[in-house]
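User: Structure with uracil, tokens only please.
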Amino acid sequence: MRIYDIIKKKRDGNELSTAEIEFFIKGYVDGSIKDYHAAALCMAIFYVGMTERETADLTLAMANSGDTVDLSQFGSLTADKHSTGGVGDKTTLIVAPIAASLGCIMAKMSGRGLGHTGGTIDKLDSIKGFNTQLSPKDFFEAVKKTGIAVVGQSGNLTPADKQLYALRDVTATVDSLPLIASSIMSKKLAAGAHTIVLDVKHGSGAFMKTPEDAEALAREMVKIGKNCGRNTSAVITNMDIPLGNNIGNSLEIKEAIEVLKGQGPEDLKTVCLALAAQIVSLSKSIDIETAKTLTRDSLENGKAFLKFKEWISAQGGNSQWIDNPQLFPVASIHHEIKASQSGFISHMDTEKIGISAVIAGAGRETKADTIDMSAGIVLKKKTGDSVNEGDIIAILHTNNKISVEGAEKKFLEAITISPNKPESKPLIYKII
Ligand code: URA
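Assistant:
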């Protein structure tokens, strides 16, 4: 077999065989197939697409390209959730304790922030003492103790995806449906959970801009998961507006604590309860209405909050910070961003809002950057709200005085104010 022939075959619109896809992934990981071959093949896939069978083969070849996590000691209640990425998306921090308080086993690997989107691992790192780099032994111990552990991706998990993702990032081949679906699902399959619930986002802050594109991606991923013997479902949610009000690492932990204490913004609560109900229903084989009642009860009766505290302590975090969120360091500058005119906020470009938070210090602009855990944005108004000129729309939190002007400019670019109230868009578009 020759990689040249495989590239040509795909370029000319043909379907690759399982053996050809396996040959490509194996060769790319062992170095016999070069970056330029892989880049050409990704571009051919970008234009020609892949059949369902090819996408499933690519996913499996990537999932098996390195180590896999064996969660079989925890039985069939292991569950994972994955978000395709967004701004203000702190759902794992709330969904995992709700599901674990009801007996699900959430042994999870999560990522760091990417571009304008935040990452769960960075958020957890803002809790004093919390260890996101547990050894495999300590990871399993934490899961046994509390039913939850969340760590950064370690070891040699899906090396094919690591290489391909980095390559796609610089060759304009990220936004290809089969490549995204196989990238995400290979990691989920390798991470070993029996139930996989996907939060597929659409809108200005998401990879998929329209609900229809998000649905196509969700259907593809659900098919792959089911074909691989995992309980899989997808909740398609709105990322045309940041989720909740707080953006930035410790600010998001504080908002998650509010929700776990029965307060916090309704949009965030709604998405978290929808995801948690899917996990509980699929992993425990109970009907969705019962799962909805159980998850809501767990949030309202404080069991989820207790589970959250147990989890944070088990990974070395200081639970006093959870009881007293005022202990989290606070940024020295709180800059008010005001409406430049009166009307209704008719649109928020969520990607730009994420970038504004990054400029304030909440994310990395280069790999080497250190995050300012207290930096970010607290929204005071969101899409659909009426504003008068001079009203505070948001408060920028930062320790870097020179970032204020740029962050405020980017934030204001993201906000459209119009005379008429916009139509509200559903928070949950579909569940698949
Ligand atoms: N997230 C991933 O893990 N992979 C992609 O290709 C896109 C988003």
